[in-house]
Amino acid sequence: MILHYDIIVVGGGHAGCEAAHIAAVMGAKTLLVTMDMTKLARMSCNPAMGGIAKGQIIREIDALGGCSAIVTDRSMIQYRMLNRSKGPAMWSPRAQCDRMLFSMEWRKILEKTDNLAIWQEVADSIIIEDGNIRGITTTLGTELHADAVILTNGTFLNGLMHVGFNTMSGGRSGDPDSRGLSEQLRELGFRVERLKTGTSARVDGRSVNFSAMVEQKGDNEGRCFSYLHNRVDIKNQKSCYITHTNEIAHGIIREGLKYSPLYTGRIKGRGPRYCPSIEDKIVTFAGKETHQLFLEPEGWETNEYYINGFASSLKLETQLSALRKIRGLENVVIYRPGYAIEYDFFQPTQLKLSLETKRIGGLFFAGQINGTTGYEEAAAQGLMAGINAVRRMRGKEPFILNRDEAYIGVLIDDLVTKGIDEPYRMFTSRAEYRILLRQDNADERLTPKAAELGTASKDRIRRVEEKYRMVDELVTFLRNHTVSPEEINTFLKEKNTTEINQKIKAIGIATRPQIYLEELLDTMHVEERLSYGKSERKSEIIQAAEIKIKYSGYLEREKGVAEKIKKFERLKIPEEIDYDELISISTEGREKLSRIKPATIGQASRISGVSSSDVSILIMYLGR
Question: Where in the chain do CATH 1.10.150.570 domains reside?
Answer without folding.
Answer: 568-623
